[in-house]
Specification:
Blueprint (H helix, E strand, L loop, with lengths): L2 H21 L17 H13 L5 H12 L10 H7 L4 H11 L6 E10 L17 E5 L2 E13 L4 E8 L8 H4 L5 E5 L6 H10 L2 E5 L12 H8 L2 H12 L11 H16 L10 H7 L1
Parallel strand pairs: 1-5, 5-6
Antiparallel strand pairs: 1-3, 2-3, 3-4
Helix pairs in contact: 1-2, 2-10, 5-10
Length: 291
Amino acid sequence: MSLLELFCHVDTFCVRFEPWLRQRTLTTKKYARQRKRSLCLSEVMTLLIAFHHSAYRTFKDFYTRHVLVHWRAEFPGLVSYNRLVEFIPSALLAFCAYWRVCRGESTGVNYLDSTALPVCHNRRIHQHKVFAGVAQRGKTSVGWFFGLKLHLLVNHRGELVNVQITPGNTDDRKPVVALVERVFGKVFGDKGYLSQELTAFLREQMGIFLCTKRRKNMDNVLMLLEDKILLRKRGMIESVIDCLKNECQIQHTRHRSVANAFTHLLAGLVAYCHLPSKPSIENRAVLRLAA
């Protein structure tokens, strides 16, 4: 997607979102001053999404070395970097709504997983203050971390269907019910989602079949050949997570504001939704179940 197409898509959303938000915003004064900014909301959102599409590792380098040098014609009202950073929190609510517009739909074949989002190095946990009270210590297969957890649900085309952000010490099974609200068919996960109560609840109350691998000390259960094949394809969601972290850069440990951190995280998720090609699964079993 080109910069012009991205801006048009974002601006079309903002034209409808800003009046809706203005009607529901509480003000403390009868005549509150609303000074027009040189960069509108759609331009701020476009710059944030474009950063997560770029190869720059920091937003400051992207803005000072690329935007201010090469994109002055596209954004005539560019401001200083420090002023733009002050604009970022104002885009948080818009990104929460825009993400819902960009996410994909369930196809009947869905994959579930979670990934750690550290907010600082383990040696700096005791002196970290930005995410105090928000982030928690958690443990993954590669070790301990201090931060958040991103829970993902994707379809077989690699599109994000739903996400949940929780503290790092949250059990992977806790947000599953909220994740599968818009889902039908089958959901495939790893051994971290093993739970007889959860599987029974999803099947009886929501009509969703949760399929996971069995541990070595557990008895085998009968499984359809199609489900076995699809369960072996669960590595696709690992590719999605790798793409989110390395291409869309949703993770780094240098945040100075919680609001800016969540805004950048949502911008990275939206940037992934706009990618032209995503990790996907295409075989007969998937196409038959998704039809």
